[in-house]
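hey can u run this one w/ magnesium ion bound, need the structure tokens asap thx
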Amino acid sequence: MSKSNSKGRSGASQTEVPTGGITYRRLLSYAMPHWRRLVLASVCMVCFAVTDAAFAALMQPLLDGGFGAGSDRAPWVVPLAVLALFMFRGVAGFISAYQMEWVGGRVIAKLRAALFDKYLSLPTSHYDQTTGGELISRLTYNVQMVSNAASRAITVLIRDSITVIALLSLMAYHSWRLTLAFMLVGPLIGVVIGYVSRRFRRISRNIQTAMGDLTHVAEEAIEGQREVKVFGGQAHERSRFEIVNEHNFRLNLKETATRAASTPLIHFLVAIALAVIMYYAGLEGTQSHLSVGAFVSFLTAMLLLFQPLKALSDLNSVIQRGIAAGESVFSLLDTPSEPDVGTRELGGVISGISYRDVRFKYSSAPGPVVKGVSFDIGAGETVALVGRSGSGKTTLAQLLARLYEMDGGEIQVNGVDLREYSLESLRAQMAYVGQQVTLFNDTVAANIAYGLEDCSHEEIVEAAKAANADEFISQMSDGYNTWVGDNGVLLSGGQRQRIAIARALLKQCPILILDEATSALDAESERLVQDGLTNLMRNRTTMVIAHRLSTIENANRILVLDQGQLLESGTHRELLASDGHYAKLHGLQFSERPAGK
Ligand SMILES: Nc1ncnc2c1ncn2[C@@H]1O[C@H](COP(=O)(O)OP(=O)(O)OP(=O)(O)O)[C@@H](O)[C@H]1O
Ligand SMILES: [Mg+2]
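ok here u go:
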């Protein structure tokens, strides 16, 4: 497919970048229909959060009463309470995780469906400017990122903030002075931890791009394996891969080193905090009445605090990352689709097509490609476009199917500007065989019947016969049910073309566009296909593009195009008689043929 060609990466950056808040609200609108599940998840998160504090609180009765002699409590009360607590915690944790995942999964599926819909309606010019890989990675990776960040943010916001509040309250309950001391040391540690994790994140972002480079190089080598082999590109590809591979290795190592160094560092910092608190507790203990149990409970709460505190300090960056991914998804969703404002319906009868001073320039190309071309195709006529490679023939044909929007002039169908018809009704009346045939990884029959809902096997066979394809299809292992492979790799170039022609013939519609449709066929097959086509073209309005002039001699009119302009037009005889460009082209092919064969 032509879209996989590597092109510039300007992508959807033309659309205005929305602010974070808007993106966030838009994302929420995808999750809001499931608010009941969100509420349930939140309640469970609160329960989950409270258990941390409850666990720390349990330390006091355990130590002060449970182990000491003379306790009036049965020895199984506290252990049982611990079990109950953890069971409660487990259930709450499960429900909240499950519900969050459910909502997140729905949001992902909905975003993906919307994106895929957009892909089906993006203008062709958009595909010229982005790589297929980029569009795919938005669909898979970015959407996943958005949803992960959003559910992570909600979880942290609810669960961890409540955990922090509960634990701090417990600590303050035991000793407000120690709590105060902790609050002085804590933020300092927080800053250091924040720094370490930021660095960690930067490296991991680099790793993502390094991974992308790796895939890109590998993809090119795999897709172009024939060229690599024949042109002896192995050494070049190998050295290219080695560079990205090595880079990837270094970055991975750096990530591991940061992580391995950061954990003991954080632990050491925590130990400092502990030491400070213990020192104060020692002082306090001599003068105040902090029991052993209360002190251990306090310490437990303090240790339990670090994890949620770290998560909370990361919250902003999680949200920012989600918003960045969300923006990239939404900006694509906001890219305008193909303009389709026409309301007229084009019926099945075509009384003529006329190009009126048509002008066109590709947005990525410097100059105009079609510079004021005018011609008519009468009902049921066949008009052939010939001309040098790059003269604009394919472009003119694609303008008729409105794959691109022209910049000036107009094309009329039945006397009405093309743009006044709805896209669907316009395209429903045309069949198109492009220069690059695209087959889908499906059976031969499904490829021929592509886009048609109800057509019988007989009709498919009939179309294949007209395209001179029936013979080779019958010889395949499963006949019409043979799979053609990814873009038809299991077929020869000429076989692919004949399937594409059969597809165009089966779609019984009044306008036919054939762009080098038989260029890959040998002379005999071409003549057979040509016979089939000639029969069918009789009642269709046809535009044929061909380099091999022998195939278009019978056209009602031949247009000679050069650099986006019409040089001459007439029948084969007229043009030969006038001894102009066409005659020259014809002479060249005619004199070349004996030598070529
Ligand atoms: N998608 C595109 N974006 C930018 N420029 C393009 C694009 N497609 C074609 N062009 C340019 O437009 C010009 C006309 O291309 P077009 O495909 O219409 O030529 P053609 O007459 O069909 O040639 P050929 O006989 O080789 O098929 C060429 O110079 C080409 O480089
Ligand atoms: Mg072309």
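The longest strand covers residues 352-360. anyway lmk if its weird
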